[in-house]
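All the exercises in this workshop are built on plain-text protein records. A record pairs a protein's sequence with a compact description of its fold. Backbone structure tokens are a discrete shorthand for how the chain folds in space. Once this layout is familiar, the rest of the handout is easier to follow. As an example, a complete record with its sequence and its structure tokens follows.
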Amino acid sequence: MQPPGSSLPPPPLPPLEDSRLEPLAASDIVGRAVGLWWRNLWPISGVIGIAAVPVEVISTLAFVRAGAALPWDIFSTPGAEPSPQEMQRFLEALVREVPLMAIGFLVGILGFFVLQAVAIPLAADLHFGRPVTIGRAYRQVFNRVWPLIGAYLLQFLIVLGAIAAIVAVFVVAAIGGGAGSALLVLAGVLGIFAAIGYGVYAAVRVSFFSQYILLEGQGPWGALKASWRLVGGTWWRVVGVFILLAIVNFVLNLPILIISGMFTDMAPSEGPTPFTFNGPVMVVTGVLGAIVSAMATIGAVVLFYDVRVRKGEVFTVAPEAHP
């Protein structure tokens, strides 16, 4: 310990020597993600829940209100088809509720992206043993919100390129089919699969851009290029770990889906009551699902650092990362 008033610098922290900075097997990455998630379930629930609850309440209220306003009684007679006048009444009511449903949809989509982003700095703190706080997680996201939006737009353009290729192939196939050219139609079908394959390949190559933006402070284009470069040569391994995380995520979510389905089956089958009855069930299911899905984000962050370690990249672990 230094005497009071000493001008000597504090002694350096010892190097961080544990499995967090060593190459991990795919099963170890998934196991670490599940372990970190389970041991820190309460702080994770607080960080995720503070945004998930209002998002789920607003989006669910919008859909419940819109659904309850529709004249479902026209479908209540077994074996009877609604008359044209009844269908016209239903469609008019549906058009009136479209703005409300659009609000619910947009809130849900924005909430999904916010929760995905917030879980990334949260996962990094857990991985390196830093304390988890709500303010730190959300501040890190809000400080980088514009680069994130820019990267999402660029990613969308990449995927849009694949979609444009698919549409073009459909057009070529249709023209070829009209001309009676079986070879051209076959080429069109093969082109569709190739375009889909390209979209999947490109999505995986840029899958770590959010980590580079939120954890490394890079810009949109730099983050996409860094992710593309990082995944190069390890594409199949990254896909394999993502698949394992998706399977575990599904297994963890399964009890929630089964229980929510049981409550949904208890709802009355006629009138607006099912929407009113199922509203709270939808909110709870959405919030719990968001908390459980944080496990997959933790796994993606552990994988992000694992690939960097395997490729010999140098990155700084902040002093507060030490336990």
The radius of gyration is 25 Å. The longest helix spans residues 84-127.
